[in-house]
Amino acid sequence: MPDAGLASADTMETDVADVGVAEGLAAQSRLRRFLPVTPMHHAERFGVWLKLENLQRTGSYKVRGALNALLAARERGDRRPVICASAGNHAQGLAWAAYRLGVQAITVMPHGAPQTKIAGVAHWGATVRQHGHSYDEAYEFARRLAEQNGYRFLSAFDDPDVIAGQGTVGIEIAPYAPDVVIVPIGGGGLASGVALALKSQGVRVVGAQVEGVDSMARAIRGDTAPRDPAPTLADGVRVKVPGFITRRLCARLLDDVVIVREAELRETLVRLALEENLIAEGAGALALAAGRRVAGRRKCAVVSGGNIDATVLATLLSEVRPRPPRKPRRGAAPPRAEPRPPRQRAGTAAGIPFPVPPAPEPAQPVSKEESTW
Fold it and tell me: So which residues are the catalytic ones?
């Protein structure tokens, strides 16, 4: 992958002004015919609303950006075969989108990618090539193949159409009127898109990264030197260098980036399974793991994906034993099961009002051995 201080020619031609709220709304119009609106779930023991992208097609939000990019390319008359590099979720999203639209797709995945993600790509008929042992090595190989064969290279995050597609997550969250939304960051596509969709609504957007896998946080501070990311359960965000477009958007729009310890991530993933009956992959549990360090009365965390390898999940469930949750205080009012009729919030994006039902009161935080929920 290019050095953080440099960018490929096609990326340099793209300015952050090429993607904004209008592009997000256009993406929503394209995608609504193909993708369902994923549910919101109130995790009472965490006191956080969860946007369940683990229930999206292919088990991840990534299908939004991939499908929007293919649909936008078709509108422009570009029907070239598409190639991408991915640790798994972007590859699955591209494979599904290409299958639905009849486009040839090639995916380059690093050795060691979860078998469940490799199988998901092959299921939808895309060609799978494995190369290297990291996303960055797979990226370099995919770029070479694109140049040699005239394919369209579709970045997993550093593409305006992809960013706009991921931004539809934020558009779907907006009616719930959160005061802060927490999103995981790898290359920055989801964080950029959600921030573009929600900042005009007055919502704070906070990114989450893993200790030792914090390239975006460092880039925002001005440290653009590439460093090998540490091993982590969150393989979906293990990116050595963030995107060129996404770095500029995140620096401008994010309110903060929280760094999570690996032990916190592991515990949160297990708690999601045991207490909320939700299966998330490592990157999918990252935003919720960061939630305890983010102040907010109506917090929302994006569960970005659920494609975890069965053996990894079994190992975590056998090794991680969170302390039983503390009993709630007596007299504490439970959250409303049904919201009141929607109200309108002033100052909506592009003049389009979002219905905003009031969110319930947050639940009492839970005390844990390795966290302070």
Answer: 62, 304
